[in-house]
Amino acid sequence: MANTKISEITEGSVALGENKFKESQLLDAAIKAGQVVKMTATGIDVNNLGSTMLGVMKEHEAFDLDTDIDAAEHGDVVTEGYCAVFIENPAGTYYPGTFLYKGLDGALAKTVGGSPFAILERTVNTGDTVAIVKLLR
Q1: Interval 61-72 mean pLDDT
Q2: pLDDT of residue 19
Q3: Burial category of 57 from C-beta neighbours within 10 Å (exposed 0-12, middle 13-18, buried 19 and up)
Q4: Where are the extended beta strands (E) located within the chain?
Q5: 0.90 exceeded by the pTM?
Q6: CATH for 6-135, among 2.170.190.11, 3.30.930.10, 2.40.300.10, 3.40.50.2300?
């Protein structure tokens, strides 16, 4: 069965292990924990093939792990370390060590686009849309 929710691959947290964060960032739009975000003039928003990724949206204590965090809330962003992220559905199996790059709608992709943003830590299969990665900074 494919893993499509962050809660299916973690035990309640996007950040795994010791990480660095940008704390209390204002959300410009509704964002799910695990989506890749970028900084805007007024806060943070979902990254969509953008060149300047800030990090990965961390879970929010007022929202379920798999529920969008409302716009105008403040939340933390994982900027370094290991975390759970959304990925574009792979057309096959990706193995640990695979580089991941900017993708669509706050997800990472295997398609090369600039410098790699993360490296895959666990195998993912066709249908998976979430993964455990190490952010590259």
Answers
A1: 95
A2: 86
A3: buried
A4: 15-26, 36-39, 44-46, 55-57, 74-86, 99-102, 108-109, 118-120, 130-135
A5: yes
A6: 2.40.300.10
